[in-house]
Amino acid sequence: MSPHISADHGSVRARLSARRTDTRGRIEALERDFDAIVEANALVAVDDEHDPDGSSTAFERAHVASLLEQAREQLLGLDQALERLEQGDYGQCEVCGEAIPVERLEVRPAARTCVRCATARHRPRPGPRRR
């Protein structure tokens, strides 16, 4: 764990817990929105393909489902960050082992890698050479 983080363990835990609470609230709101969309669509009992509003309803349902999935992934990441904090691994890059800068952790508290390793992982690999 980074020396700055070990000295500030309590405030890191509080920040992660607050983000977790916010994320859980967003999940609950999105679940209500999703259920309302499904319920409203079931009451109308229309065919998405032939109803002029069906495609927008399907899009809205898919959009909320996507946001819900992202929020659940964020919650999982925050839970894992709290576990790393308790284990003493929080703030350490899982790839290179270097300390993750505090500034990155303030923006992305569930970050598992430093910027260099995260960038390298998402960099496109060169494809086969064309002749």
Q: Could you give the order of the helices and strands? A: HHHHH
Helix content: 55-70%
Principal-axes geometry comes out as elongated
**What is the structural class?**
mainly alpha
Uncertain parts: none
Q: Determine the number of helices (DSSP H or I, runs of at least 4 residues).
A: 5
Oligomer: single chain
How much strand?
A: under 5%
Radius of gyration from the alpha-carbon trace, in angstroms: 21 Å
C-alpha termini separation:
49 Å
What's the mean pLDDT score? 85
The main β sheet shows up as:
none
What does this structure look like?
The chain has helices at 3-7, 9-44, 54-87, 102-107, 115-122. With 131 residues, the protein is an all-alpha fold.
Q: How do the helices and strands line up, and which of them pair or pack?
A:
Blueprint: H1 3-7, H2 9-44, H3 54-87, H4 102-107, H5 115-122
Helix pairs in contact: 2-3
Q: Keyphrases for this structure?
A:
131 residues; mainly alpha; 68% helix; 0% strand
Concise synopsis of the structure shown:
The N and C termini lie far apart (49 Å). By secondary structure, this protein is an all-alpha fold.
